[in-house]
Amino acid sequence: MVWGVAATAQDAPPTTEEVLASLKVGQDTLWVLVAAFLVFFMNAGFCMLETGFCRQKNAVNILAKNLIVFALSTIAFWAIGFGLMYGDGNPFLGTAGWFLGGADNSPMTGDDYKGIFNALSWTGVPLNAKFLFQLVFAGTSATIVSGAVAERIKFVSFLIFSLILTGILYPITGHWIWGGGWLANLFKDANGEVTGAFWDFAGSTVVHSVGGWAALAGAMLLGPRIGRYSSSGASAMPGHNISIATLGCLILWLGWFGFNPGSTMALDPAAISHIAVTTNTAGAFGGVAATFTAWVYLGKPDLSMVINGILAGLVGVTASCAWVTIPWSAVIGLIAGIIVVFAVTTIDGLKVDDPVGAISVHLVCGVWGTLCVGLFSEGPSEAEGALYTAGPLRGLILGGGFNQLIPQIIGIVAVGAFTLITTVLAWFVIKAIVGLRVPEEEEIKGLDLSEHGMEAYSGFLKES
Amino acid sequence: MVWGVAATAQDAPPTTEEVLASLKVGQDTLWVLVAAFLVFFMNAGFCMLETGFCRQKNAVNILAKNLIVFALSTIAFWAIGFGLMYGDGNPFLGTAGWFLGGADNSPMTGDDYKGIFNALSWTGVPLNAKFLFQLVFAGTSATIVSGAVAERIKFVSFLIFSLILTGILYPITGHWIWGGGWLANLFKDANGEVTGAFWDFAGSTVVHSVGGWAALAGAMLLGPRIGRYSSSGASAMPGHNISIATLGCLILWLGWFGFNPGSTMALDPAAISHIAVTTNTAGAFGGVAATFTAWVYLGKPDLSMVINGILAGLVGVTASCAWVTIPWSAVIGLIAGIIVVFAVTTIDGLKVDDPVGAISVHLVCGVWGTLCVGLFSEGPSEAEGALYTAGPLRGLILGGGFNQLIPQIIGIVAVGAFTLITTVLAWFVIKAIVGLRVPEEEEIKGLDLSEHGMEAYSGFLKES
Amino acid sequence: MVWGVAATAQDAPPTTEEVLASLKVGQDTLWVLVAAFLVFFMNAGFCMLETGFCRQKNAVNILAKNLIVFALSTIAFWAIGFGLMYGDGNPFLGTAGWFLGGADNSPMTGDDYKGIFNALSWTGVPLNAKFLFQLVFAGTSATIVSGAVAERIKFVSFLIFSLILTGILYPITGHWIWGGGWLANLFKDANGEVTGAFWDFAGSTVVHSVGGWAALAGAMLLGPRIGRYSSSGASAMPGHNISIATLGCLILWLGWFGFNPGSTMALDPAAISHIAVTTNTAGAFGGVAATFTAWVYLGKPDLSMVINGILAGLVGVTASCAWVTIPWSAVIGLIAGIIVVFAVTTIDGLKVDDPVGAISVHLVCGVWGTLCVGLFSEGPSEAEGALYTAGPLRGLILGGGFNQLIPQIIGIVAVGAFTLITTVLAWFVIKAIVGLRVPEEEEIKGLDLSEHGMEAYSGFLKES
Question: For position B310, which CATH number holds?
Answer without folding.
Answer: 1.10.3430.10
